[in-house]
Amino acid sequence: MKIENQEENHYHFMIYKPYGYLSQFINNGQKQNSKKLLGELYDFPIGTMAIGRLDEKSEGLLLLTTNGKVSNQICSGGIEKEYYAQLDGDLTTDAIKRLQQGVEIGFDGKKYQTAPCKVAKLEDIPKFPERSKKIRDDRHGPTSWISITLKEGKFRQVRKMTSAVGFPTLRLVRIRVGNIYLNDMKVGEVKELDHI
Prior knowledge:
- This protein is mainly beta and about 200 residues long.
- It is about 15% helix and about 30% strand.
- The strands form three sheets. Strands 1, 4, 5, 6, 9, 10, 11, 12 and 13 form a nine-stranded mixed β-sheet that branches.
- The longest helix has 9 residues, at about 95-100.
- The protein is globular and about 50 Å long.
């Protein structure tokens, strides 16, 4: 994925979005007055927008830009987004196959069939920084980690998909968008990019 600037004077960023932050810069309602926003992490230029979203409880790679065309190109589908998800329970082979084939989830009050995607159970536990809000540990029953790669991105899609096969998501970290990786960024860290 390399989307060049068609116009000069645009800025692009990658950020390790922390748990508990909204993927936005402005509060859109009274209930959200106490919510943490991206602008608290860095002095972004005016007009910066998140490319897609990570919900408040999700962490990891979030791309930002001042170029709406770039945002639309990435959000319109076709670009892979990879997540590592910690699931409640020991994920079965059958559940992996169902996720890979696509499952029915609810979206906007309607049923939605997710597109086929890549899913693999991780042998080793990923080494992410400890989350600000503690996650229950294996003393309360087994957990498993998966890699899941999608080209679509409905609201809370990964969480809805894993719940649909009986393994709710406990922790969700996006590690890649196209060929841009989270790698060893620190939580809350922001890097400026030449292009996306």
